[in-house]
Amino acid sequence: MAKDAKDLLERVREELKSDGGSNRLVPLIASGEASLEALKALAAEEHRIVQSDWRAFLTLAAQSPLPAQREFFATVASGEGLALAKLADFATACGLTPEDVAAYRPLPGCQAYPSYVARLALDGNPQDALLAILANFAEWGGYCATIAAALREHYGFDDAGCAFFDFFAEPAPDLDALSLRALTDVLATGWTPTGAMPAARLLHSYELMFWNTLADL
């Protein structure tokens, strides 16, 4: 069954890639061409996203009837909490004060993603949410690794300023194993992924919208 879960996840991720679209911001950061204003917006938008996702993942954990599924959502929620403090250092490195972050006016194109994650939590279907979220986790770590390296090379950020991205770029084999165990247990209940595919596609589109909204700044 673990192989079934892995195969399903790989198939869904390939389907999402085939839908097209690309992240235009990360290559700009990687080359040092992204503006400081875009980085500031990234920090302020993520400040709101992390807090929203933290609450959504805790809600999904509470809804999850299966132990591994519940543990997965609780674990990623805990990660959001740890990341929030590191995000403050990134904002500081960008030249933002806490008051600046609080006063920032969030962009609709950036907040569609966390709003949809929150909707998945409110819909009360943690099985569909599990697959949709896992399918969209794949590229995040790679993006963060690229951004962390570029912030050091092109923007002169120190380790504290890059720690938010370093945190998510770090391989997490235990979390990967837990996610497959959770998906395996969900499949064992007879659940099928048909209903989760629209959610996975929307979440993928909203993530690209987030990055590309910032790329246009």
From TrEMBL:
List the InterPro entries hit by this protein, alphabetically: Haem_Oase-like_multi-hlx (IPR016084), Thiaminase-2/PQQC (IPR004305)
Superkingdom assignment: Bacteria
Write out the pathway annotation from the protein's UniProt entry.
Cofactor biosynthesis; thiamine diphosphate biosynthesis
Q: Where is the Thiaminase-2/PQQC domain?
A: 27-152
- Coiled-coil ranges per the record? none
Annotated Gene3D superfamilies:
Heme oxygenase-like
Q: Which Pfam families match?
A: TENA_THI-4
User: What protein name is recorded for this chain?
Assistant: TENA/THI-4/PQQC family protein
| Source lineage | Bacteria, Bacillati, Actinomycetota, Actinomycetes, Pseudonocardiales
